[in-house]
């Protein structure tokens, strides 16, 4: 079964990390990567840029042409781009893994290894093998 492990960090805790804390976080993630690569469970993973480097695209309006009756400030294709993440939050998506493991329990066991003082929440979500949601 494939799962996406989404890691959410406290930006204040991340910014306040000491050199030693940062090194410890990297050591723990490197050990997890080695374990998952050795077991064949790691498919992909990466850290993500800060939310300040994010652009969110939104489709405007509910009409088929994307119009919403606004003053025309939207892009011609009915899409508006804004700086920043999807929603303001105390935590931000900081990294992800895509894993292939035997069970949801195993996925949660893997996810629990990334929780620490700055990764304050981890979401484990099954991945569909197709966009058909099946």
Structure description:
It is a single chain. The chain is flat. About 7% of the residues have low confidence. It has a 4-stranded antiparallel β-sheet with strand order 2-5-1-6. The protein is built from 3 helices and 6 strands. The two termini are 13 Å apart. It has 134 residues and is of the alpha+beta class. The longest helix has 21 residues.
Short description:
The chain has helices spanning 11-15, 19-39, 104-112; strands spanning 2-9, 42-47, 55-59, 79-83, 92-100, 119-126.
**What class, by secondary structure content?**
alpha+beta
C-alpha geometry: flat
- Which quaternary structure do these chains form? single chain
Quick one: how many beta strands? 6
Weakly predicted, low-confidence segments: 66-74
Order of helices and strands: EHHEEEEHE
Q: In angstroms, what is the radius of gyration?
A: 19 Å
SSE layout and pairings?
Blueprint: E1 2-9, H1 11-15, H2 19-39, E2 42-47, E3 55-59, E4 79-83, E5 92-100, H3 104-112, E6 119-126
Antiparallel strand pairs: 1-5, 1-6, 2-5, 3-4
Characteristic terms for this protein:
single chain; 134 residues; alpha+beta; four-stranded antiparallel β-sheet; two-stranded antiparallel ribbon; 3 helices; 6 strands; 26% helix; flat
């Amino acid at each position: 079964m494939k799962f996406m492990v989404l890691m959410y960090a406290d930006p204040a805790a991340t910014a306040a990390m000491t050199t030693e804390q940062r090194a410890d976080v990297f050591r723990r993630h490197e050990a997890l990567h080695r374990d998952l690569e050795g077991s064949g469970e790691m498919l992909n993973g990466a850290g993500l840029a800060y939310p300040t480097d994010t652009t969110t695209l939104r489709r405007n309006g509910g009409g088929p042409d994307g119009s919403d009756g606004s003053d025309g400030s939207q892009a011609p294709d009915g899409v508006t781009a804004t700086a920043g993440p999807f929603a303001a939050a105390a935590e931000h998506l900081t990294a992800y893994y895509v894993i292939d493991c035997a069970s949801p329990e195993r996925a949660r066991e893997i996810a629990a290894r990334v929780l620490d003082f700055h990764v304050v929440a981890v979401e484990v979500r099954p991945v569909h093998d197709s966009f058909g949601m099946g």
